[in-house]
Amino acid sequence: MIKRGYIILSVLIISILAVQPVSAGFFGDIFNKITGRVTDDIVEPVPPEPDSVPASEPEPVPPEETPTETEPVPPEPIICPTITPPVCPDETTTCPEETGEDGCPAWNCDTCETTEPIPPEDECLPIQTTMTCGAEACEGKDLGDCLCPMKKDEKGCSYWDCDSCKTPVPDNCRRIMLENGAEVTECKKECPGIPGGAIEKCKESGGNVIERKDHYGCPFIECEYDVGEQCPSAEEMEAKKQACLNQNLKPIIVRKAECDTVKCQRVEPEKRCAEDVNARKEIKEKCMESGGEIAKRFDDNGCPITVCIDSGQECSKNVPEEAYKNCEIEEGDLMIKRDAEGCIVFIDCAKRGKKEVGYENIEEMPSAGTLLAVALKLESLKIDFDKLAAKVTEIAKYYEGTGNGLEAARFRKVAELFSSAINKLDEIKIKFRENAKDMTEEDLRELKYDIKYVSEVIMQDALYIILGGEIELGGGTGVTEEGYTNCGSDGQCWREAVRLCEPVIHSPRPSDPIPLDSAITARIHGLDEDGFCMIDAEVNGYSMFCKVKDYATLNTDGPEILEFCEGNMVEWLLSGVKDAEPPKVKPGKCANRCGDGICQEKVCMGNGCPCQETFENCQKDCDGMPSKFKFCTEEDEKEFKNCQDEGGAPQSDPSKYGNCEIYTHCAIEPETLADCDKYVDMAIKNDCFIKIAEKTGDSSICLKVTVPDRRDKCYVKTAETTRDSKLCENIVDEDIKKHCYDSVAGESPSSPERERIGPVKAEEIAGEIVFTEDFEQGLENWYSYSASDAMPATGWDTMTEENGNTVLRGTDHNWIDLKEREWTNYIFKARFKIISGRMHFNYRLHKEGDFRRYYVGVNRDGEIYLTRSTPPTHINLINNKVPLQLDDGWHEFKMVGYNNILNIYIDDKLLIEYQDVGTPALPGGIAFETLGGGEFLIDDIEIQISGKKDVIGGGN
Amino acid sequence: MIRKIITISIIILLLFTIAGCAAKEDIKSEEEAQEAVVDVSGDISDISDTLEDIEKDLT
User: Fold this and answer.
1) Is position A680 within any domain?
2) How confident is the model at residue A256 (pLDDT cuts 50, 70, 90)?
3) Is A837 left (phi over 0), alpha (psi -120 to 50) or beta?
4) In A356-456, which ranges are continuous DSSP H helix?
5) Same structural domain for residues A741 and A865?
6) Which residues of A touch B39 (CB under 8 A)?
7) A371 CA: distance to closest CA in chain B (Å)
8) Which domain holds residue A517?
9) Per the domain annotation, does A905 fall within a domain?
10) CB-based contact (8 Å) between B7 and chain A?
């Protein structure tokens, strides 16, 4: 038994040791000796051979013959060559003589006595052990492309010889050392000015002149053409292209208002260096196989090329002047990274991503073989991208760990760019797959545009940011105190800011349905903790708040952005109604940004907009700001003042959403019933009666209360004071009555409704039908309310169809919840009919405590989508809306949930199969929510407990 | 019995080997971070060039 134990133990130890070389310790040494494996930690560095080779080499001694053991050979006399002894470095003495291994004299020049002066103590200034050019000690010196050599002065003191670092950078350039160790060469140039007549030519051709600045700050113009009522015809496009050429500008095709139009762009500087990517990859692979080292060299044109060098071979430290010139012509900054030895390990002419890429007309469709090859390349790119994203995230994590927030944010931003690029590549792959057989020119044009965008815009920006480049938005007219760049009406500045989620304010020109004289304000607030870009917009009292995930590839000119947004502005824009009435300001769920250093004085009112900040509620952001008090509505303000006039103490709370103050009640302290007579305002008078009734327990006072639900409240108060549940009988409203009984007696009497509904949450048995509804008995199981203020509303009500069937009908933005029922795993079925707009089917809706739900949006435009909502976060679980074609008739909705797996069917067709790997919302009930302009009919609801076998996906 | 032990040992050995291979190396020093930045920069250039190639293929 003991032997077996030893065997198992031994095998386990060997197994563990086999995985990782042992780094230290007695057993480790033994094991490494046995296996012949070593680690970097335990390898003793081999010291370099001492430089003991004398000035003149001794003649080689011929090898002796190996004597055999059986025939002993007498030792032969040693004949040593005649050698002149080498001289010591001081050139005055010879090197000391020693006896070599062969018995002949040898000279060891290492033991020459030094003649260097030994400086007296404290005379030398302390210096660092290594010094790179650009470091503090060399500040102000002419920095070079090499390590500063260490020299000794006449006293023998060491110093860094920065003067010997000669720089070949052109006169108009200067080298800057970045904090991340990279060198950047920035150059300046004389601006040539805008060619005479260029502006006039653009205007004459019907274009809009846009003035921009290049990399060096030199102005140039672009010419853009608006799209009229109809998209430009082929002839018009051709005329505009010709107009561009006449202006010495390059015509590109861009999209505007869902039409192709022409834009005249400046001719981009040509790319001077382009190393073949496949050749570079091949060199890298072969070099790794052969154990060499990758290094950068320069060809005759000053273009960097990748080479493989042997370990220890001299590396490239100097950058030829042509390389700087090339980068200057390309309008970039030459960025160089070196290793500790000063060898160039990375060099690139870093440029910001292109501001805009154009669509290209397809002259010839590629063959099926080419398309297949492209699809394969894309597949392998996806893998490279994933690896790249993982590496960047690791770097970001490292900097987060060291507390370097700026660097961490830089790499997080790049990771987000990659995330967008990866999703875009996925989209491209899907398009290739779906359209491979019958790809049209239009399909190909879109694909080429997408690929070009990722390559020339996103990747270029990612590289620029990684190398330490600072983001400056073109077109910005200044920066606000809060740090927002003002893009004005410059759409390109806005698009660039969205791509990088940089904080900006933008005032775009209104387009349909927004009236032309409206002032739109859109702001980008930056990234939230989950990597969503936060954007809000306001116009004419309408507002929306957007949380955009793949912002880098988002088309902000089209309606695509709206799917990430919430707020009444979304509904307005989707409705397309031109003369929409300015809405009453209603608060939305706001985001608490206290502590971000910006005092959010003026805020939009949509869901997710920043909460209004004042000195009172956020002193750290609003220190020194005047105290302000903003009411949510005019009524709130009026009632507040009215209470003050009545001598009461008006009470208000920040709205439950936090944006503004809602008047709650007028605090009064009446002593007797007579005190109530002094109040003129009936609401305050009623409150007074309730106070006295509560105080005295006299329920007869409640008869004086003029408003029915307030009177009911009065009875509740008196019943609570007297602990007499009989007083609850006076209450008209059934819900309040129930509350009264609960409050006084601890439980309400059994009611037919309560018995029918059963327990709120019972044991779930798969297959059991736990609820059905056909609305023939009205809405007693349901609670209908307005989405804007959560007050009871009739937006949902029953109606009778021509055939006598009663159905539920919902309009505008209203909710209807099933009362008091929650389940975890269930099948939710309902028949529905779309009259107009869109609706959310709410599944596992839970409102007490932490609000959560899934909602499935269905609309007439042929889309269905799934979202998990835990305000203020709404996560679109399905990136792209799933196409849905529905006619005007009745359809069946079915949602099956089992733990985190969700299946959604329409008319028995599985449309969404999803596994929620986040925090799934469960348990909860059901509800329907029509959205602005929406009108839906609902009937025949059924809830059946589901089992694992009922869902598809998640390993089933 | 010995066969069982050997089998179990081989399985354990394999598991350790796989776990060792799959383990992700974290960045632990500024030097490593700088090396990673150089790696990533090179990779980005490669991917951009490949994308450009693809775009040209479609022309």
Assistant:
1) yes
2) confident
3) left
4) 368-402, 405-435, 441-453
5) no
6) 391
7) 8
8) 485-622
9) yes
10) no
